[in-house]
Design brief:
single chain, alpha/beta, 25 helices, 44% helix
Length: 680
């Protein structure tokens, strides 16, 4: 464990200390120790104790002028230091990070936690304490699992709540009447109910969950057709929370809308939830009583483009948080029901919110490049804001050009756009028609053909993973192979292909797949395996071989061991890399018609003559001739792409000589070397 210590020239403000504490916990602090290290002794200790004793008089303890925060590793401590430095800049902070002995603080503090008596009849004890012997028959025992930010009776506020609960027992029973939760109230608590459960009751609180409350689905209404609305409610006071929830449900719940309310008691807890970005909220309702401005600003920052209602004592704090274009309203706590209802009405009048939720499974990602050449669009195009949150970016029928797509990619920062799954096939169909029309042009250039084929590969990468090789996907793959072969011709020249190797643009998987097919066909021509069927097999295999991979950096590796040694990839990534030859071969089984041997090329394209390849560790005896040629083409492309322009293949043969001295590999290399020497 590592300690980040900080000494300051003066105490920070309470607001700054709130922000500092929040930042330290954001970077995974295991705890924060305020004050001197080691603890003060003598008069200093008496002064510290006196300050704590009378803390309620000024309202809060003074922020510390030094602190220690504890982290599991040095990296987190260093990140936390960089985060808090700007906040403390004016206080001349002196930081130090050092390793400390790790202790189980979660267990150590339990030794000093004892049962607590609270007048008039309460005993609060932890689960590890034994029941109190000879307890009065009127005693009510609360058994808790104490932890961070959990009321245990040691603080005056918790004691006051228990005393208030006792004083208003009769009213509490009326509130809970008719609810199953009322059954846990013993007869000794408030007026008689007619049946007793005995004395010395052990109470638990099986009430509404603080985690999540979902409105039930209306009968006969499919969930997928409903509007989904997520609401975050940040409120510590139980009665206010119940009123707020009731108003929200009555105002916003309809047969067409599914409402999910997530509760958090504290602003800090809500911020931690939002930081995870696991879900977006359409509405955030939070309490504010004039303290913790930094926390409120963090909440708004992480909440993003949503609607907010601040429950405050009055309207004076509105200006501190409201921003131009922001959906923001204030409800008055002293009259929370009517003012919250009015606030929701004002929000709805400004702009509709909470109607964009759609299951992620209904959408298919599509790269922006895949939209090139398919204008006007036959379907709507969406951009993703977060889990199950999509907004329409481009309408069906809109015309798009390269500049429009550049703006989407660069200005909107959107590499991927999204189509509804039921409309994705129409885009592939339209793109296949565009490629077919382009291939019929008498003035077709290689650059135009490559651009169209690249866009097709990008579209197939996204759609096939979600939908499989539908008839429309098969059509696009075949037309893209055809346009590539048309420009390649019957006598592809290896030297010409290698000369353009450095000029290929685009993402690695796309550019690599396009070029690999050309190199493989050029090698096949040198081997006099120059039938149209062979070219078709090799080009189609090149289009499909890396289609299952999503990570361009991972796809650039030719060896599984090299990918492991890089340390850049997770075990799941490496497993996907190992199995991608199998998955790409499985794609061929989805085609209605496909030439024989393509699946074998795909299955074997990462094998090695000596058996060191993957996924099946085959030796040269079991690798087919076309797969052997494909493997050599793959290695040649990888080697030449890393060399300066003008590098000859001779050096490749020298470095690869030991690797290709068996089986079909030896024959292919021998023929290539002879052709090379004849050409020179």
């Amino acid at each position: 464990m590592y300690a980040l210590t900080c000494a300051l020239s003066a105490r920070p403000t309470a607001a700054d200390w709130d922000l500092i504490s929040g930042l330290l916990y954001q970077f995974h602090s295991q705890g924060i120790e305020e004050g001197e290290e080691p603890p003060p002794t003598g008069e200093a200790a008496l002064h510290a104790a006196n300050e704590f004793e009378h803390a309620l008089e000024p309202g809060v303890l003074s922020p510390p002028d030094r602190f220690s925060a504890y982290f599991e590793n040095r990296r987190d401590a260093e990140h936390a230091q960089r985060a808090v430095e700007p906040v403390l800049a004016n206080l001349k902070p002196i930081f130090d990070i050092h390793e400390v002995e790790e202790k189980d603080y979660a267990e150590l503090w339990k030794e000093n936690f004892h049962p607590i008596h609270v007048d008039p009849c309460w005993l609060v004890r932890a689960t590890w304490h034994a029941p109190e012997a000879n307890a009065p028959t009127s005693q009510l025992e609360l058994i808790v699992e104490p932890g961070m930010a959990f009321g245990t009776g040691s603080h005056e506020t918790t004691r006051a709540c228990l005393e208030l609960l006792t004083a208003h027992a009769a009213r509490l029973r009326r509130v809970l009447q008719g609810m199953a939760q009322a059954e846990w109230l013993p007869d000794s608590f408030g007026p008689p109910r007619g049946t007793g459960r005995g004395h010395h009751e052990q109470l638990s609180a099986p009430g509404l969950s603080d985690a999540q409350t979902s409105m039930p689905q209306q009968l006969g209404q499919p969930l997928a057709e409903k509007i989904r609305m997520n609401i975050l409610l940040v409120e510590d006071e139980g009665e206010a929370r119940n009123i707020i929830q009731l108003v929200i449900e009555q105002k916003l719940s309809t047969p067409e809308k599914t409402i999910t309310i997530v509760h958090r008691r504290l602003l800090q807890d809500a911020i931690e939830l939002l930081e995870k970005q696991d879900q977006l909220f359409d509405l955030i309702v939070f309490a504010y009583a004039g303290t913790g401005q930094a926390l409120v600003k963090c909440l708004i920052q992480y909440g993003g483009p949503t609607a907010y209602v601040m429950c405050a004592p009055d309207n004076t704090s509105r200006a501190a948080f409201e921003q131009p274009g922001m959906l923001f309203e204030v409800a008055i706590r002293s009259n929370i029901g009517p003012t919250l209802l009015a606030a929701l009405d004002r929000l709805a009048a400004k702009r509709k919110f909470g109607d964009q939720g759609t299951p992620d499974g209904d959408f298919v990602p599509i790269q922006t490049e895949a939209l090139i050449g398919v204008s006007p669009l036959k379907c709507d195009v969406y951009i993703k804001l977060g889990p199950e949150r999509y907004i329409k970016l481009i309408k069906k029928g809109d015309e798009l050009d390269a500049e429009d797509l550049r703006k989407i990619r660069d200005v909107k920062k959107a590499e991927s756009l999204f189509l509804r799954k039921d409309e994705a096939s129409s885009l592939l169909d339209r793109q296949a028609d565009a490629v077919k029309k382009l291939s019929e042009s008498p003035n077709l250039t290689e650059a135009e053909a490559d651009k169209a084929a690249s866009a097709s590969i990008e579209a197939l990468r996204d759609v096939v993973d979600r939908m499989g090789f539908t008839p429309q996907a098969q059509k696009l793959a075949k037309t893209s192979v055809e346009i590539t072969l048309k420009l390649l011709g019957a006598r592809p020249k290896l030297s010409a292909v290698l000369a353009r190797l450095k000029q290929e643009e685009g993402k690695y998987i796309t550019a690599h797949s396009l070029t690999l097919g050309k190199i493989a066909c050029a090698l096949a021509y040198k081997m006099q395996w120059n039938s149209a069927a062979t070219y078709l097999k090799l080009t189609l295999a090149s289009f499909l071989h890396d289609l299952p991979l999503k990570d361009n950096e991972l796809a650039a590796y030719t060896s599984l061991e090299e990918a492991k040694k890089s340390g850049q990839f997770s075990d799941a990534d490496l497993q996907a890399f190992k199995l991608h030859p199998i998955k790409s071969a499985e794609y061929t089984r989805q085609f209605d018609e496909i030439p024989a041997d393509v699946d074998q090329i795909l299955m074997q394209h990462h094998e090695r003559p000596d058996g060191s390849g993957f996924p099946r560790s085959l030796t040269h005896k079991y690798i087919s001739p076309l797969a052997s040629l494909f493997i050599i083409a793959h290695d040649l492309m990888h080697y030449m792409s890393e060399q300066p322009p003008g590098t000859l293949m001779d050096q490749f043969f020298v470095e690869a000589e030991d690797r290709y001295q068996t089986g079909h590999f030896k024959k292919i290399i021998k023929q290539l070397k002879e052709d090379q020497s004849t050409a020179t």
